[in-house]
Description:
By secondary structure, the chain is α/β, with parallel strands linked by helices. It contains 12 helices and 8 strands. An 8-stranded mixed β-sheet has the order 3-2-1-4-5-7-6-8, with helices on both faces. Helix 5 links the parallel strand 1 and strand 2 (113-117).
Amino acid sequence: MIGNRQSPVPDILARVDETNPAAPTSLAPHPVLADYYGDAAARPQYVQHLFDCTAPSYDRIERLIGFGSGPWYRRQALGRAGLAEGMSVLDVAVGTGLVAREAITIVKRPSLVKGLDPSPGMLREARRQLGLPAVLGFGECIPLRDASVDFVSMGYALRHLEDLTVTFREFARVLRPGGRVCLLELTRPANRVGCGMLRVYLKWVVPFFTGVFTRNRDARLLMRYFWETIQACVPPERIQQALCDAGFVRVRRTLVLGVFSEYVGRAPGPDVPPVTEADRRRGGTFAERVFPLFESVTRPGV
Ligand SMILES: C[S@@+](CC[C@H](N)C(=O)[O-])C[C@H]1O[C@@H](n2cnc3c(N)ncnc32)[C@H](O)[C@@H]1O
């Protein structure tokens, strides 16, 4: 069973990418956090255990963090990434189904949305709440056929992966030509004041109230761990580069309110237009031009 493996990274994938031999073969989302687990090999099981223990409280915690990252924001982000009625979706790191639920609203048929997660506790919640087909597994080793979905989403799980390069190559593999990827993530604000405020909020305020409301020590620890992973996460440019290295084109990051990053890209395909100079001059989508709270960065040359 994949969920019990020590490491989710398939050996052969970790060693070489024959389609792009010049690309780095591995990128961890952050260095080892020794206060939480011993070494890199221990991380997948540590993370799985944390999410398993907190699955029944997860939705409550998520509402507590609030911060605009609720159902409305997830739905808007999926729409901005190009999700539309009738598309088939794989939601990696489905958790309790918060992204998958919004995907179902957009594609209109629940049977089009599948979930994947290594935590049996989270999958149990997703199945109970949404009744969706949810598979036990890691993003680094997806048990689906090549070119089998139109859209891959992943909400707030990038920091919990073992390897970004390997995972993004898996996303590219399961997507049909022209398919879309959309990754939602919290990013450490670039300015010091914003970063300091988020630090106080996520490191102290949220864990405290999580402990009070859930009476679950693991949930409190999870919230502390969240902040540590945000703080230690590789910068957005490396994440975008890893998407490009995995073969994605039109890779773009939209930053909302200085904290919410939306990474999108397309699998190459005949209907995917190249980025033009006009695209670059336009400076992003309508939303980004109208609301200065949105800021978007397209990788040069992709
Ligand atoms: C913060 S929750 C996010 C849940 C949901 N996507 C959301 O938007 O609320 C992170 C999820 O990532 C899952 N996860 C951890 N490591 C993973 C991996 N290597 N591959 C796929 N999912 C993973 C956890 O089990 C957990 O359910």
